[in-house]
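Entry:
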Amino acid sequence: MKQSHLYILIVFVGLTSNVVLSHESDDSLEECYLEQLNLSEEKREVGEIRAWCQKKLEQHIALDVKEKSPLEQRIINEAKTQDSRNVITPHMRNYMLPVTYIRKPNEEPYKDLPGSVDELDNVEAKFQMSFKAPIFKSLVVSKDILYFGFTIQSYWQMYNRDASSPFRETNYQPEIFYGFMNDLEIGGWTNRVNIIGVEHQSNGRSQPLSRSWNRVYANFMWESDKWLVGFKPWYRLPEDEKESPNSPEGDDNPDINKYMGYFEFTTAYKWDEQTFGMMFRNNLRSNNRGAIQLDWTFPMGDRFKGYAQYFNGYGESLIDYNQSIERFGVGILLTDLF
């Protein structure tokens, strides 16, 4: 067999294999095939050359991933599957907290409403589902993506048998955001990802329980070794005033900025297989309203992680945006930050 025919056969076998690789990996394989073909004896088997090059590339990829930061590893893993119709790419954390304890549940919105929950249990379940999908790539630069994201966060009075275990509140958050990677370094910190987006958040309820708002936001993410820091400022898009309190048109919660503030600061630290995180919000006013959330994720089997969450402040959910809530919960984490 001629060397040119042998080379074509090797490349064809390599490209039709079931190993998931990027275009850069395919190019590396072809270079290895050609190099080994030129160096090898004529009697060397095609399968032997292919196996040798494949093993070499896998070792190189494994070494390269180990040297990457936790955020870079997540970006690499997402890039492998984000175009697959059979894979859902996580956006924020996905978790189920079957047991959470609220020190003082907010019963005020449900008073005197027919069919609503009058007495809330202190113990309820909380869960979040969040995913994203790329819409367009390389719009301005080579490493930018326009995404569609969707997040659902729900609060379930699962143990409240007297009220037929209702879902007390569910918040829906669709968003469109543009993100691009960066490598700006300042004082040992790297500005890895920058995001600009617009999002809508609503609880999908009718009056008088309806809550919603729209905002334009940016998110600047910096990392250093195993530390990740994010700063997310936003501007709330204004709405018209209501003609009457129960009118379906107009602003359901005109004072939400007084409680949610104008920014969110987050940080996370990855220690072995555990992650410690914090979220902080503040309205930067004299009344000093805001919120803090502490997160701890830890190994629990091969597929899932354990998750402990503590929240204290305003705006945990839309129905409670103007009420201070203190909650602690434990459960299972499906997808982590990294």
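Helices lie at 3-15, 23-39, 46-67, 70-81, 256-260.
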